[in-house]
Design a protein that fits this description.
The chain has nine helices and four strands, in the order βααββαααααααβ.
């Protein structure tokens, strides 16, 4: 399938992405995936933290929990707008991270740089914002693992790991939105409930808005990532022709 810009749909990329998402879903409750789930929770809390800094506030501490929960404690300047931005940045931040991983790996071929950047991000969050020993140990342990991976792993394996994280993050975002925002009992204690008390806009409206924005962002980034640029990708050497004697 060719778009107006001349880019073609890479069915191999699409099949690989769907395969990784399917594998993530199938092994969802496997303890092997626990570190990846906590990593996505860190993406969520980092979204809150970054938004807090962008609106002129400060971040006191971030906590990760063994049961895959997380909290970000920050101080914000007065104003409803600031609270809307910071409260929305958790779910949307996870979606942005998944979208960035897909685009960096497939569209821009920056897999090694992205893994190195993730190592720096985790080290910064651990050293400056970790509020307990578990959060500190997790962030620094993952930072070391990603740093070593960016430095020593083959490029193909780095890309595969990044793409798996992208697929897993996209799936986690969908499940997170479903469980936190569309389950009325859980939604009453979520970021949507906080905004409902601040803005008088029902939490279900915030849930719908965040769901639509997250799915749209992941869908658009997947579309871009799955369409190869004309002449892009790995070029194979020309096939040698045998000469007639």
């Amino acid at each position: 399938m060719r778009t107006a810009s001349g880019a073609t749909l890479d069915f191999g990329r699409l099949a690989l992405l769907l395969l990784l998402m399917g594998a993530s879903w199938y092994f969802w409750y496997s303890p092997v995936l626990w570190p990846v789930k906590v990593l996505v929770v860190m993406m969520h809390e980092s979204g809150h933290a970054i938004a807090s800094l962008l609106v002129g506030g400060s971040v006191d501490r971030v906590h990760l929990q063994v049961n895959e929960g997380g909290t970000c404690f920050s101080r914000l300047p007065p104003g409803v707008f600031n609270r809307v931005i910071v409260s929305s940045a958790g779910y949307l931040g996870s979606a942005v991270a998944g979208a960035a991983l897909m685009l960096a790996t497939f569209r821009f071929r920056l897999g090694r740089a992205v893994m190195g950047a993730a190592s720096v991000w985790l080290a910064v969050m651990g050293f400056f914002y970790a509020g307990d020993l578990f959060t500190l140990a997790f962030c620094l342990g993952m930072a070391v693992a990603m740093g070593l991976g960016a430095r020593f792993l083959p490029t193909g394996l780095v890309d595969a790991l990044n793409l798996f994280l992208a697929a897993f993050t996209a799936l986690y975002v969908i499940f997170d939105l479903r469980d936190d925002l569309w389950n009325s009992a859980v939604r009453a204690q979520s970021d949507a409930a906080i905004l409902a008390s601040e803005t008088w806009v029902p939490s279900i409206v915030w849930a719908a808005l965040w769901t639509l924005l997250s799915l749209a962002l992941l869908g658009v980034s997947a579309y871009w990532a799955m369409h190869a640029k004309p002449g892009g990708g790995v070029k194979l050497p020309p096939v040698a022709r045998a000469r007639r004697v």
